[in-house]
Design brief:
With 174 residues, this protein is of the alpha/beta class. The protein contains five helices and seven strands. It is globular, with a radius of gyration of 15 Å.
Length: 174
């Protein structure tokens, strides 16, 4: 098994803005959503991990529509496969929290930990069972039963906000 260091596509955030929660995007399909989540990461000081293959060419140009000029301020890492992402996460001792509609556990009834990596799945298909089974915690956002799901960027925002609140990391942004 080879050692893998993810490629970083932006300058590292200044020390005072580094939050020890990360957001992972499993094989994203839509560049605009990915750009929006990079903007979220830039604004909140959260690193974003993009796990390939993506459904679009990952470049500053494709991410600019959703991320605007915030992409330049985002710390994000490119992992060429889920296996490489898992190697990084496990070697860093980070817990994987999957946001999924297939969980019965409310995202607001769990305890988040400093160092968690929150992962959203593909817009078109979520994550395969093998990825879901590898998550230490699976959570869902409570919503009306007849609705399928929220947009992944909205879901990431809601759960990331709750995780930051619970871990007192929001105070670092004030």
């Amino acid at each position: 098994m080879r050692h893998y260091t993810p490629r970083c596509c932006a300058t590292r955030l200044p020390e005072e803005f580094q939050i020890s929660l990360d957001l992972a995007l499993y094989q994203p399909d839509i560049a605009q959503n990915t750009g929006s989540m990079l903007r979220l990461g830039a604004c909140l000081g959260v690193a974003v991990h993009i796990i390939h293959p993506a459904g679009f060419p990952v470049s500053r140009q494709t991410l600019k529509r959703g991320g605007l000029d915030y992409v330049e301020h985002a710390e994000f890492h490119i992992h060429d496969s889920y296996e490489h992402f898992t190697q990084w996460r496990e070697s860093a001792g980070r817990r994987l929290v999957l946001l999924t509609t297939k969980s019965s556990q409310s995202a607001y009834a769990v305890q988040y930990q400093d160092g968690d990596v929150l992962m959203v799945g593909r817009e078109s298909a979520g994550v395969p069972d093998s990825v879901a089974n590898g998550a230490e915690l699976r959570v869902r956002i409570p919503m009306r039963q007849q609705m399928r799901s929220l947009n992944v960027a909205m879901a990431a925002s809601l759960v990331l906000g709750e995780a930051l609140r619970q871990t007192d990391l929001l105070q670092l942004l004030q």
